[in-house]
Every structure is written in C-alpha cells, then in structure tokens.
Amino acid sequence: MPDTGLLRDAALPNPLPAGTVAVIGLGYVGRPIALAAAAAGFAVSGFDLDPAAAAAAEAAWRGLGAPGRLSATADPARLPAAQTWLICVPTPLDAAGRPDLSLVEAALATCVARLVRGALVCLVSTCQPGATNGTCRRAIEAAGFAVGRDVFLCVSPERENPGATDGPRDVPRLLGATDEASLARGRAFWERVAGRVIPVASPEIAECAKLLENTYRLVNVALMDELHRGFAALGVPTRAVVEAAATKPFGFAPFWPGAGAGGHCIPVDPEFLQMELARVGAASSLLAAAAEANRARPAAVVEGVARALGGSLAGRRVLVMGVTYKPGVADLRGAAPLALLRLLAARGAEALWHDPLVAEGPGPLAPFVRAADPARCPGGPPDAVVLGTPQPGFDLAALPRLAAVAVDPFGLVPGGAAAGVRVV
Ligand SMILES: NC(=O)c1ccc[n+]([C@@H]2O[C@H](COP(=O)([O-])OP(=O)(O)OC[C@H]3O[C@@H](n4cnc5c(N)ncnc54)[C@H](O)[C@@H]3O)[C@@H](O)[C@H]2O)c1
After folding, report:
1. CA 25 to centroid of ligand 1, rounded, Å
2. Which atom of ligand 1 is nearest to the CA of 125?
3. How many domains does the chain divide into?
4. CA 285 → CA 258, 289, 315, distances in Å?
5. Residue limits of the UDP-glucose/GDP-mannose dehydrogenase C-terminal domain (predicted)?
6. Which has fewest Cβ within 10 Å: 25, 123, 362, 394?
7. Same structural domain for residues 388 and 317?
C-alpha cells in the first residue's frame, strides 16, 4: 500500500459523516444500491444517461414510501457534487470480444468534473485488476487531486445475483482501497449501506476476487456441459451424479449443464481477467477453453436438435422453451436461448419461442414466432422442442408431449434419455 502519510485517518471511528451520495448508472446494480443508500439516511443523487432508468429509480424510491431523499436525473448539469461517488455503469465486451471500459471512463469524467476535496470515489462495476489503481486513479489525479489526501478511492465490486437475493445487504461486500484513509472511508460508507464488509489488502485483490468468482463458474459450467454429453453416452443421468457428489460435505460445489451460460457476467467477466493475464504473459488456457466451449454450446445444442430430426433443420419447426439468460428473470442479455433461435433460423428452421416471463415486443425476439401457449403453437405442433431456460412453473414432464422430438440440454426432463428425451 502506498505511504500516503494519512494512515492516522484509519483510526477515526467513522470519518464519513452522513452526507450526499451520487450513483452513476442506475441499472440492475446501481438502482438497488441507490435505494439502500437512501434508506440508510444518505441524500442520494442518481445519474443515468437513460431517462427511463433515472425515472425508474425515482419511482422505486417513491414506491418504498420510506423517509429520506433520492432524486435521479439524465441531465448531467443537474447532478450536484457529492461526498461519495459510486460508479455502477456496464463493463461489456466490445464487438471483438474485448473488455470495454469506455463507459467507466465516461462515468469517471462525469464524477471527476464535480469532485470536491474529501470526496470518496468507489468503483462498483466489474473491471480488470488495476482499474481502480490505474484508470480511476489517473482520472482523479488528472483533475489535480492527490488520491488518499484530497480524494479517496476504493473498489467494492458488485456480487449480487439479481432475482435470487433481496438487495445490497444479502451478499458480503469486498472492499479494497488505494490507501488506509480511503479504506476507512469506504468501510464507513458500505457498513451503513450494505451490512457486512470484508476489507482486503488491495484494490487488485477485490477486483481479482470478483473475476475469480465468475471464472470459477464459467469453467465449471463448461465442464458440466461437456460431461453431460459424456454421462448421457454412458447411460448415466447427470443430475443424479451431481446430486450424489454434492452430498460430500467438503471439496465439491454442484454445477449443472445447460444451453450455455449467458447474461452479462459469467461469459463476460472472465475476459477481463484473461486480458490482464495475457498482458503479463500468463493467459489461462483452461479459461480460454471454457470460454470457447461456452460460446460453442448453443451451436452444439442446435446440432443435437438437427441430429434428432435426421440431420437437416431446413423447413423444420422448432420450439424453444424459455428464452431468458437464467430462470426466474425476464432478462435477455446474452441469453443462450437467443443464440439457439438465431442458429435454428440460420439453418433454415422456423424458430418459435415460449416464455411466461417475456412479453412479446420489438427487440431480439422480434424475428421469431411467439407461442403464447406451447401446447397450441401457431401453425400446429412443432417438429422438435428444446429446453432453452427452465422457467419456474414449466411442466418439464410434459415437455416431450409438445413435439415428436424433445431435446434437453439441462438433464432436467424426468426420465431423460430413458424416456426418449434427447440429451445434448
Ligand atoms: N446485473 C448483475 O447481475 C451484476 C452483478 C454483478 C456485477 N455486475 C456489474 O455491475 C456493473 C453494472 O451492471 P448492471 O447490470 O447494473 O448494468 P445495467 O445495464 O443494468 O445498468 C447500467 C446503467 O448505466 C447507465 N450508463 C451507462 N453509461 C453511463 C454513463 N456514462 N453515465 C451514466 N449512466 C450510464 C446505463 O444507461 C444503464 O442504465 C457492470 O460492471 C456489471 O458487470 C452486474
């Protein structure tokens, strides 16, 4: 840790008085944090380039009916200076599959233009190791502030699992900072807003830990996808194998096969780690293989559908059941079932979809035919049905009755291969 000369500040019980918080980016991550900060007594200003996101944050706050203050805007001119700045913008991959930090840089520019001495900047977006100490530090120092003396800097990567947890208090927050004074300020803020805070010795540890979590998931999901086909060839049901292995009280965490890990985190975050590993000449071949296997998974599933239909998909009608990136959410970002639909259509099939959580409308599903009721598909029963995402409420036992061929990448349909279901 650099000697900032401010280590004495770490001894202050709570160097951050109740104050103002600005949250930049009010999406899946920023909005609940903004609400939690307001509920904790901070006066919160939200900023999002998208007026709908700003309006949604204000509406969510009104809906809580809690005392406190939260306002949000899409107009940067209306964003006041704040004591604590949280950067919660997306960190996607670019068209070439490389990490794209341009939105973080833009958010930093918004923040830095309003920084005052004593402010704390916290990076929440998932970034590569070095983003806090590099990209963020440089932006702050370029504005003439010394990090750790004038302005304080930390990183607390988001670890929520939207749809599965209730908000920022559910998952302990990792916190890394550039210096002791920043760590103390970050800790005081997050302990009020998020409950359990786990300080780590450097920003890079927090950044790498977040990336490791999702790299671990990607590698294990890819392994299960591959073993699923192998277990099926051996005539052994995958789910039963994993459930049996998971009875071991140590050394094993269960992962499940599927149509491909999608969403904005599992396929994306490991690329941030890989980018930095490659930079230092230590790229992970295992990670690269898992990422490639995951990218190829939807094509392997579609190939399984084609084989089950005799080799060609041309003119065949295939229903994809469940189209979101994971069960229980309406989120289509990076959803593997979308890739299934596109690949089916590219091979000449008529691609249909059913999902109780997704309303018909413009967007990535527009080119495909919606089946509001999978038992009454437009144009009659499909030739094949494939489980895209096992949405809650799906009658999986009934899946094989929807079409002559049922394809299950998840190993979830009761009876499995023994009941004539195609395992891919
Ligand atoms: N969603 C999750 O489940 C999840 C979980 C853990 C970590 N993360 C990480 O958290 C970060 C945010 O993800 P998210 O899911 O909330 O994204 P999101 O797309 O839901 O929301 C981000 C918001 O930021 C806004 N935005 C983009 N650039 C901006 C700018 N320069 N200024 C102001 N607003 C801007 C967008 O309009 C959008 O509303 C990402 O790094 C992501 O990887 C997400």
Report:
1. 6
2. 41
3. 2
4. 22, 6, 39
5. 319-415
6. 362
7. yes
